[in-house]
Design goal:
GO terms for molecular function: ATP binding; kinase activity; magnesium ion binding; potassium ion binding; pyruvate kinase activity. With about 575 residues, this protein is an alpha/beta fold. The chain has three domains: about 90-160 and about 265-435, TIM Barrel (Alpha-Beta Barrel); about 170-265, M1 Pyruvate Kinase, Domain 3; about 455-570, Pyruvate kinase, C-terminal domain (Pyruvate Kinase, Chain: A, domain 1), CATH 3.40.1380. Helices cover about 35% and strands about 20% of the residues. An eight-stranded parallel beta barrel has the order 6-7-8-18-19-20-21-22, surrounded by six helices. The chain has a seven-stranded mixed beta sheet with strand order 11-10-14-13-12-16-17, with no helix packed on it. A six-stranded mixed beta sheet has the order 5-25-24-23-26-27, with helices on both faces. Helix 3 links the parallel strand 7 (about 120-125) and strand 8.
Length: about 575
C-alpha cells in the first residue's frame, strides 16, 4: 500500500461512543463514525492531509477460527505469568544474566529461565570458545525442548588494560601495605607470590612512580613505588579482593591517564576471532567493549553483514569510558542498543557523576529508539549474601523508574552463591516499581524525538504514539502488533504504554531480539497481510491457552499495512 494512502482502521470498544473524537499526535483529529455493523468503526487516513475522514467498514465482526489454524510460540515462563497474573500485571523491564561457573549447567540455566531471564550474556573475558559453545548449545536446547525464548548476547573482551587470570586462582586478597608486582612478563602457573600479570605490553613504560593504580574501579588501590624493567612494584593503600581479569586504571594528579588507552584498538585480534565465533553460532547480540566512536560500530556491522548475509545480529555499544561519553550520541545512533557499564565507567570518571550520566544515557537511548541496559554492581552484595542491601534495592528501583529497557546481573549470576535469588530480587523490584508507576498515573508527556528516516516510517511512528496514548486513556489490556522485522514493535516499546505489547513476528531470530526491549512480549506466529484473519487466529489461540479472555480490550497494529484497530476480544 503506498505510504500516501495508508489506512488507519479502528474497531471501537463498547466504552467508546459512536461519535467520539480521539486526539492523535501528528494528526489533527480522528472522528469515528458508525459502520454498517454494530461495534465496528473504521477511518481512512490520507497522509497528504492533517485531517482524517471516516467511511463505513464493509466487513463483519471477527469470527474465531480453530486453534489448529495457526501455531503460536511464546516463552513458557511468560505464558505462565500471563495465565496467573493477567496481561496488565506482567513485568515490563527485561532481565539479562551473565552465565558463568555458577550457572552454566542445563539445570542452572533452566532455573534462570524460569525466574525470568530474557537474555543470557557470555563474557568473552572468561572461559574458552569450547566452553561458550556448550553454553550456547544448552540455551538453544532449552528453547527448543522446553519452550523458552532466551536470547544470547556475546560480550567482547576489548583492549583496555586488565589483569591476567591469577594463575588459576579464583581470587586474591591484597592487604594494606603489601608490595605487589604488576608485570607484563608471562608466567607459568602458579604465579610467584604477590604477583599479577598485566595484558598491556606498554604498562611498565607508561606508569610513573607516584601514580595510583585502581583495580576494578577502586575495589583495591595501589601506589606505584618502583619500576624494574617489565615489573612495576606497587604498595597496597586500599586493601581489597583481586578478581581474575579485573580492569586496571592508573591515575596521576587526580585524573585518569587515558592517552595510551585512547590509542588502543577497540576490537582486538582476539575480539575478531570471538566475533567470528559468535556469527557462526548465531548469537542474537554482540556487545562491543570500550567503544570510542561510531566508526567502530559501523565497521563491525558491515563485517557482520558480509560474513552472514541476512543476519539479525544486533550490535550493542558498551558505554564505559571517557571516550564513549565524548562521542555518546553518534555511538548510540550507529548502534542497535547500548549498555551502561557503570563499573568500568566509574573507574574513569568521578563517582558522583555516574548517576547523572546513567540517566542521560537512558534518556538518550529512548529518544533515539535504542534499547538500553543498565549494568554492573546492581546487586553486588548478593555474590556472597542471600539478600541485597537496601541501597542496592534503591539503585535497581531508580533504573526501573528511569524506564531502562533491561537490567543486568554480572558476577551475581556468573559466580555468585545466590544467582536465582538475585534474579528474583530484580524481577520483584521491577514489578513493584512498574505497578506503582501505573497506580500513580505517571503518564509521561510523549515528547520524543522524530526518528523517522522516511515518510512511511513517520506514519508508523505517529500511529505508535497515538496507540500508546489511546492505550493509556482507554486502559486497554494489551496492544497487539504484527511485525516482520520488529521495527513497529520497537516504536511502541519506546512510548512505554501502561499495558504490555504482544509482538507477533514470523521470525524466530526477530522474536529473540525483541526480548531485550521494554514491555514487549514476543510471539512467533505465521501471519498474512489480512488483519482480520490474523486477529481471528490470534484471539482463538491466545484464548485457548488462557492468555486473554473474552471482553478484554486490545489495540491492534500492523507494520505491513500501517493499520490500527481498537476492539474487545470476542
Amino acid at each position: 500500500m503506498p505510504a500516501a494512502h495508508s489506512l488507519l482502521h479502528l474497531a471501537a470498544p463498547k466504552s467508546v461512543a459512536p461519535t467520539s473524537t480521539l486526539s492523535l499526535a501528528g494528526a489533527a483529529h480522528l472522528r469515528l463514525l458508525p459502520s454498517r455493523r454494530p461495534q465496528r468503526l473504521v477511518a481512512s487516513c490520507s497522509s497528504a492531509h492533517p485531517d482524517l475522514a471516516a467511511f463505513p467498514n464493509p466487513n463483519g465482526l471477527l469470527v474465531a477460527e480453530p486453534a489448529a489454524a495457526a501455531p503460536i510460540d511464546i516463552d513458557v515462563a511468560t505464558e505462565a505469568e500471563l495465565r496467573e497474573n493477567g496481561s496488565r500485571s506482567t513485568r515490563r523491564t527485561k532481565l539479562v544474566c551473565t552465565v558463568g561457573p555458577a550457572t552454566c549447567g542445563p539445570s542452572e540455566l533452566e532455573a534462570l529461565a524460569v525466574g525470568g531471564m530474557n537474555v543470557a550474556r557470555l563474557n568473552m573475558c572468561h572461559g574458552d570458545r569450547e566452553w561458550h559453545q556448550k553454553v550456547i548449545s544448552s540455551v538453544r536446547m532449552l528453547n527448543e525442548e522446553k519452550g523458552y525464548a532466551v536470547a544470547v548476547m556475546m560480550d567482547t573482551e576489548g583492549s583496555e588494560i586488565h589483569m591476567g587470570d591469577l594463575g588459576g586462582a579464583p581470587a586474591a586478597k591484597a592487604e594494606d601495605g603489601e608490595i605487589w608486582t604488576f608485570s607484563v612478563r608471562s608466567f607459568e602457573a602458579p604465579l610467584p607470590e604477590l604477583t599479577v600479570h598485566v595484558n598491556y605490553e606498554g604498562f611498565a613504560e607508561d606508569v610513573r612512580v607516584g601514580d595510583d593504580l585502581l583495580v576494578d574501579g577502586g575495589m583495591a588501590r595501589f601506589e606505584v613505588v618502583e619500576k624494574l624493567g617489565p615489573d612495576v612494584k606497587c604498595r597496597c593503600t586500599d586493601p581489597g579482593l583481586l578478581l581474575p581479569r579485573a580492569n586496571l586504571t592508573f591515575w596521576r594528579d587526580g585524573s585518569v591517564v587515558r592517552a595510551k588507552n585512547a590509542m588502543l584498538p577497540t576490537i582486538t585480534s582476539k575480539d575478531w576471532l570471538d566475533i567470528d565465533f559468535g556469527i557462526a553460532e548465531g548469537v542474537d547480540f554482540i556487545a562491543v567493549s570500550f567503544v570510542k566512536s561510531a566508526e567502530v560500530i559501523n565497521h563491525l556491522k558491515s563485517y557482520i553483514a558480509a560474513r552472514s548475509r541476512g543476519s539479525d545480529i544486533a550490535v550493542i555499544a558498551k558505554i564505559e569510558s571517557i571516550d564513549s561519553l565524548t562521542n555518546l550520541e553518534e555511538i548510540i545512533r550507529a548502534s542497535d542498543g547500548a549498555m551502561v557499564a557503570r563499573g568500568d565507567l566509574g573507574a574513569q570518571i568521578p563517582l558522583e557523576q555516574v548517576p547523572s550520566i546513567q540517566q542521560k544515557i537512558v534518556k538518550l537511548c529512548r529518544q533515539l529508539n535504542k534499547p538500553v541496559i543498565v549494568a554492573s554492581q546492581l546487586l553486588e552484595s548478593m555474590i556472597e549474601y542471600p539478600i541485597p542491601t537496601r541501597a542496592e534495592v534503591a539503585d535497581v528501583s531508580e533504573a526501573v523508574h528511569q524506564r531502562a529497557d533491561a537490567l543486568m546481573l554480572s558476577g551475581e549470576s556468573a559466580m555468585g552463591r545466590y544467582p536465582d535469588k538475585a534474579l528474583i530480587v530484580l524481577s520483584s523490584v521491577s514489578l513493584r516499581i512498574e505497578r506503582w508507576w501505573r497506580e500513580e498515573k505517571h503518564h509521561e508527556p510523549l515528547e520524543l524525538e522524530d526518528v523517522s528516516s522516511s515518510f512511511s516510517d513517520k506514519i508508523s511512528e505517529e500511529i505508535c504514539i497515538s496507540a500508546a496514548k489511546m492505550a493509556n486513556k482507554l486502559e486497554v489490556d494489551a496492544v497487539f502488533v504484527y511485525t516482520k522485522g520488529g521495527h513497529m514493535a520497537s516504536l511502541l516499546s519506546r512510548c512505554r504504554p501502561d499495558c504490555p505489547i504482544f509482538a507477533f513476528t514470523n521470525s524466530t531470530s526477530v522474536r529473540r531480539r525483541l526480548n531485550l526491549q521494554w514491555g514487549l512480549i514476543p510471539f512467533r506466529l505465521t501471519f498474512s497481510d489480512d488483519m482480520e484473519s490474523n486477529l481471528n487466529r490470534t484471539f482463538s489461540l491466545l484464548k485457548a491457552r488462557g492468555m486473554i479472555k473474552s471482553g478484554d480490550l486490545v489495540i491492534a497494529l500492523s507494520d505491513m499495512l500501517q493499520s490500527i484497530q481498537v476492539m474487545n476480544v470476542p
